[in-house]
Amino acid sequence: MVRKTHPEPGDPAAGNGILSRRIFLEGALVASATGAGLSRGSAEPLTVQPWMKVPGPGFAGYGQPSPFESKVIKVFPPPPNPAGVGASRTPLHMLEGMITPSGLHFERSHSGVPEIDPDQHRLVIHGLVKRPLVFTVEALSRYPMQSRIAFIECGGNSQALNAPQAQPLNVAAIHGLLGCSEWTGVRLSTLLDEAGIEPQARWVIAEGADAAAMSRSIPLAKAMDDALLCLYQNGERVRPSNGYPVRLLLPGFEGNMNVKWLRRLKLTADPAMTKDETSKYTILLKDEKAWQFVFPMEVKSVITRPSPGLKLRGPGFYEISGQAWSGNGSIRQVDVSADGGRSWAPAALQGPILPKAPVRFRAAWQWHGGPAVLQSRATDDTGMVQPTRAQFGDERGLRGVYHYNAIASWRIDEKGEASNVYV
Amino acid sequence: MFTSKSIAVCVSVLTSASAALAQSPQFGRPIEPADIAAWDISIGPDGAGLPPGRGTAIEGEAIYVAKCQACHGDKGIGPSVALAGALVGGMGTLAPDKTPIKTVGSYWPYATTLFDYVRRAMPFQESKSLTADEVYAVTAYILDLNGIVGSNDVIDAQSLPKVRMPNRDGFIPFPRNPK
User: How far does A136 lie from chain B, in Å, by closest CA?
Assistant: First the structure.
């Protein structure tokens, strides 16, 4: 591959058709270099559509997506598992940008979604504090608030890629336990300071008001650093499926620790060793040992388009688009490959680039119509690089279930169909 | 239109407001520990928080059959609900290159966790409905099925934290947590 010092828009940047990201940076696409896109036959004559001839319907109290978007929904398995147990998954392949619409944010619940009357809800802070305190939602709403855009990723996201053989699944089924919202609420440190932290305290046991009373032990240092008690999600009150009326946000930490329907915070010297921090969310390694208390969701990326179910309509220009994120900081670079990782070129990153928030990346691709394997590889500002599946497995094996963050691969066949593969 | 009097009032309000801002807002209401008791269901691995009560595996079997077996299967094996998982067996399956079967017996490091979880989350359709004696008894039964306690052993706040789980030493810290 020959690379010029200053690639022009449309110049090859890596093998099998990856073009220079200058297309995005300069907003200019050189048709001669890319060979254009769809066939250029003349379009149909334009007619005036019926919706331009009569007034449309009036207002709605709460707006809904177009009925033509009815396929853009969360996916979840049918019974036999009891309703509301398990997870629903975000349809990442049908979304753009960095924010997940609140109604499409994935859910993981252990005993359904509780129907909580906010006037009856209470949050108590107790244990190793000088003054045990109880808060109403109204009281929480009176504190100075803070907003931040942050991802929440389930610790079990992408676990299908631990399987020895690549499963015929799409991006939602594999990677859909990922969402990003603008979260607004009260800093947890404000309330802990009000309660007065005893010097022996090292942990905070957080507990939800669901029927499972889901609970996790949180390091006090994280609680005092950037933990947020969220009352709002994307500008409106947090959705019931995401923890209404108040949820814990621990930016960058595994989703399960971001306890929903938060009702109790108990400060302790030691972790409680709850079910979800011993029997679950621990990572069994190659030997008989397991990592416990694995907090950050490490650097990761996934191509959402093209991806399985989104068929390419003939050779030509395509944008490769996806999300990259790191629980340890900000995304510094995303590289994209169309030849299964043999050659790479940097993707364009869509701002704003925020710590512990997903970044939309885009690469230009000239599909020649032959086989291709699309991959993305993210690097964060701590210097951590997303591992290959082989590197990931070499470190910890593939029995760990949780925190799978290796490079994912979509194979494109000659018909333009994408499928999940290992390379 | 402002009069000098109303301006003076405004100034005095602003002064008292800025005095209040010097102290952070405090909207939490004090609550006595005794009034938190009904909510405080946390149990530590040292047994802290375990309530009075007792039970044996023999007593627990009937509770298990009535309240747990429909999802978790006969004797904790072969659950009918996939997410329920097996409670019993899997010993030796954590070994390298084996497919792990992570059960209470093969994987859980603390017996107190079993009591804590049953009390807060089970039975699935009516959580928090078992008495402390019933939770001790069904805990004892699941431990007995795994060969960890005897069927007549009394499980209570003193004995449960002393139960040594087979995989107690199976966990190590993750090396890359933030400082």
Answer: 8
Q: Is the minimum CB–CB distance between B40 and chain A shorter than 8 Å?
A: yes
Task: Give the count of alpha carbons within 13 A of B65, CB side only.
Answer: 6
Closest CA to A242 of A362, A347, A116: A116
Gap between the Cα atoms of B102 and B68, Å rounded? 18
b/e sequence B42-77, b meaning 16+ C-beta within 10 Å:
bbbbebebbbebbbbbebbbebbeebbbebbbebbe
Partners of residue B80 in chain A, C-beta under 8 Å: 80
Helix (H) or strand (E) holding A21: none
CB A108 within 8 A of CB B83: no
What are the tens digits of pLDDT across the range A181-227? 999 999 999 999 999 999 999 999 999 999 999 999 999 999 999 99
Q: In terms of Cα–Cα distance, which of A131, A246, A245, A137 is closest to A192? A: A131
Q: In this predicted model, what pLDDT tens digit does every residue of A66-98 receive, in sequence order? A: 999 999 999 998 776 677 788 999 999 999 999
Question: Using CA atoms, how far apart are residues A296 and A225, in angstroms rounded to an integer?
Answer: 14
Closest CA to A287 of B100, B108, B36: B100
CA dist., res. B119 & res. B136, Å (int):
9
Q: For residue B163, which residues of chain A lie inside 8 Å, CB to CB?
A: none
ipTM value greater than 0.90 = yes
Which positions ≥6 away from A415 have C-beta within 8 Å?
A: A311
Closest CA to B47 of B156, B133, B125, B168: B156
